[in-house]
Amino acid sequence: MKRSLYFSFVCLSLILSGLQGCVVVDEGYVGVKKKFGKISDKALKPGVHLYLPVANEVELWDIKTHKRKMQLDLPSNEGLIVKFETTVLFRPENVIDIRKKIGSEYVTRVLDPELKSVFRDIIGKQGVAELITNPENLAATATNALKETLGARGILVEGLRVTKLDLPLKFKESIERKIQAEEKVKEMAFELKSAKIAADIEIARAEGAAKAQEIVKKTLSPAYLQYLWISTLNENPNVIYVSTEANMPVFRTVGEPKAKAKPAPLK
Predict the structure, then answer these.
(1) Is the pTM of this model over 0.70?
(2) I need a labelling partner for 170 at 20 to 30 A (CA). Which of 64, 73, 131, 186 fits?
(3) How many helices and strands, by DSSP H and E, does the chain display?
(4) What angle (nearest 5°) sits at the alpha carbon of residue 153, between those of residues 86 and 44?
(5) Domain segments of the chain: what residues?
(6) CATH code for residues 66-167
(7) Each residue of 79-92: pLDDT tens digit?
(8) SS3 167
């Protein structure tokens, strides 16, 4: 009798050990446990966990940061189509709540539609010019809106970028024309400034020459002219000075003596 009970206990232990399962939850993951189809209210933390495979099931969820890129074509308030690419960084924060209310495909079911809806609402209220001149405002506004809407669904938004902003052809042409006009205005302003500087230089030169002439006129006295002519005597030996009764100099250039003519030969 004892032997049969012991044998039965051993067999039951072997059966139970065969039915016993375990799951290893790595760092950066959590386990979502289901028992007879009902999801547990507490996630399994990293480590080794035992469970009965017959009655339980464990899903591993990656809670590290994920990156999602999306190409969007949305109309502005002018009706112009704006093309751009957005990249959002996120991670599932309340895994149990996401699993119960949304499911494992929460990215395509919630995140993508909310991303499109937020950008559609923001861009639809703005003009293309505002989007181009202040793209940081677009990303910041979208980030705040997504943090609020997705945070309520258990998804944490860590960051968002807007890249590859492509303008409508009509708007591109208008911007190019505006840039060309601005460059032309800058060039004309530079030419005007250069011409003004050149005119100021010529005026300064003319004023300087006029002042110089005025100074010379004031200094051209008879005595000064006497001094100038007398100063030339040392430089030109062919000029002689003859004083007069009025003390005014009379200058005369002494030329070389003419050669005497030779007599004609007798015939």
Answers:
(1) no
(2) 186
(3) 8, 10
(4) 110
(5) 19-62, 66-167, 169-217, 222-250
(6) 3.30.479.30
(7) 888 888 999 999 99
(8) coil
